[in-house]
């Protein structure tokens, strides 16, 4: 795997910050103000806006006061002036350096949903499109780009209920990008949909954690914050989208997105690969896991080890999937995860053999 040189990493880090700031400025015009609200002993930022054209006032959820990045943007809001042209130049430079970029349709759809508030409302981009944003976060890039014909998006159900706000209708937002987008029918609940597809079969799907009985896995869950769509429950998704991070999808001037922490993505792929019935998708999962595990073992080994230990602690079925997933990795991936967990066991308070790892790399 080619390492990313220091100059390219610096460009990505700067772009990542500026894209996030640009999104924040766009969402919250200067004629409004930010206020704090305390709900159940936690403090949250809300924005009180004013539409001069209609004379209407609005209240919009911003984020938690405890989130230092959100608070920093609130405090610096009036000072932010982002140059879109320089961001386009940065994206072009990163593309030349071998960073993965989004295809045109993927970029336009993600950008439209970002503008509609999906990420502000604590939605998370998952799947291969999220994977494309990781090189700048882990310091290495895959040998070849992985393309996909779909976009997977997730949100925690509790957040969707509690946030008290909704995106505009998702179907309308997608049709503004491509008029051929249509809801994908759900046989058990014709009145609900969790996915949309265009005339070429390009698919946008919404997911939610399945924390109940496996019997409910096929039952779509209405998501109050997601503009009239429901979401497909998936096991293990709560692990994936816990404590997500900011990254940038390389399209146009860059799109600020929220994605799973790369160490969680890697461990999650080890688990879900075992539930795949299609060999091609299983191989794709393991390829992504192996790349991230090797990169993280070199650059962020403590985070990788901690995610492995957390997953291992979740019970017997998780352990079986982790053991099988590691056995299916290539040699580089197996050695990397073993070394990371063995090396940092004392720091994290466990013996490697207690969490399914032999005492020395195999």
From TrEMBL:
Pfam families: NTP_transf_8
Domain Nucleotidyltransferase-like residue range list: 106-312
Domain of life assignment: Bacteria
Protein name: Nucleotidyltransferase-like domain-containing protein
Organism: Methylobacterium bullatum
